[in-house]
Design goal:
Largest sheet: 7 strands, parallel
CATH architecture of the largest domain: 3-Layer(aba) Sandwich
Number of strands: 14
Structural class: alpha/beta
Order of helices and strands: EEEEHEEEEHEHEHEEHEHEH
Shape: elongated
Strand content: 25-35%
CATH class of the largest domain: Alpha Beta
Helix content: 25-40%
Number of domains: 2
Strand order of the largest sheet: 10-9-8-13-11-14-12
Radius of gyration: 20 Å
Length: 254
């Protein structure tokens, strides 16, 4: 945990997020356990803290007797909305939390989990897709990445209706890419060095997108790109594509 995250209502006074507040965490709160058992935080010590979709600051441990009491001071800027959105075919439930943690830690504004021809239909009945499970994975990723921007997330059992309705809210102009190991274009040809526009990324299931799905994405101006000469698992592809986009955006396009 590189950032202790609080919900706005944990720091609220008269309906507004407080700049400075005292907070109590129950003894069995996951955050309190991490502070105590992993970070070895003791009274008088401070850790980096923030509020979801809000400011960053610090939290000082005041007491740790049953409940942990902290003084939270938020005097830094909030994490900005990342210029990346991710459309992700639902991966195996076993790896889904890890994939979401990776995406959240690297920084995405929104994740849409979608169906695809090669997604096992049983995945949609997995408890890993419950709202609470998804939210917990995203928070863990944000705590690791030290960002207060917790991504929006939504599950879509049908791909084509999602594409038809979601395209109206996608930012314009935006660069739209679909990761595909057999694509002829490289990622840097679609997101050139120094590009500043928002980027929409679509990543398929382990078996890849079928031709009809690729054609539907192409009709919505998604360009198929390869990440390199090897075929990656979903969890590796998510990390690779987000990291490459961030690098390309930082480079000087001149």
């Amino acid at each position: 945990m590189n950032l202790l995250l609080f919900e706005p209502d944990e720091l609220s006074r008269a309906g507004a997020a407080a700049i400075e507040a005292e907070v109590e965490l129950a003894a069995d709160d996951r955050r309190a356990r991490h502070l105590r058992e992993v970070l070895r935080a003791r009274p008088g010590q401070t850790v980096r803290a923030g509020v979801v979709r809000g400011a960053i600051g610090r939290a000082e441990v005041l007491t740790d007797e049953g409940r942990m009491r902290l003084r939270v001071v938020l005097d830094g800027a909030a994490s900005p909305r990342p210029p990346l959105e991710l459309i992700l075919a639902v991966p195996r439930p076993k790896v889904l939390p890890r994939v979401l943690e990776t995406a959240a830690s690297l920084g995405v504004a929104r994740i849409d989990l979608v169906n695809a021809w090669r997604v096992d239909r049983s995945y949609f009945s997995s408890p890993r897709l419950a709202a609470g499970e998804l939210a917990a994975a995203l928070r863990l990723g944000c705590e690791q990445g030290a960002t207060t921007w917790v991504p929006d997330i939504e599950v879509h059992p049908l791909l084509m209706p999602f594409l038809e309705t979601a395209s109206a809210r996608w930012p314009a102009p935006a660069r739209r890419i679909v990761a595909h190991p057999r694509a002829g274009a490289t990622i840097e040809s679609a997101v050139p060095p120094g590009a500043r526009e928002p980027v929409l990324v679509a990543i398929g299931p382990e078996g890849g997108w079928i031709d009809r799905e690729l054609a539907s994405l192409a009709e919505l101006d998604f360009r198929a790109v390869t990440l390199g000469p090897t075929v990656l698992r979903v969890e590796s592809a998510v990390a690779a594509v987000l990291a490459q986009i961030q690098l390309l955006r930082r480079l000087d396009g001149g």
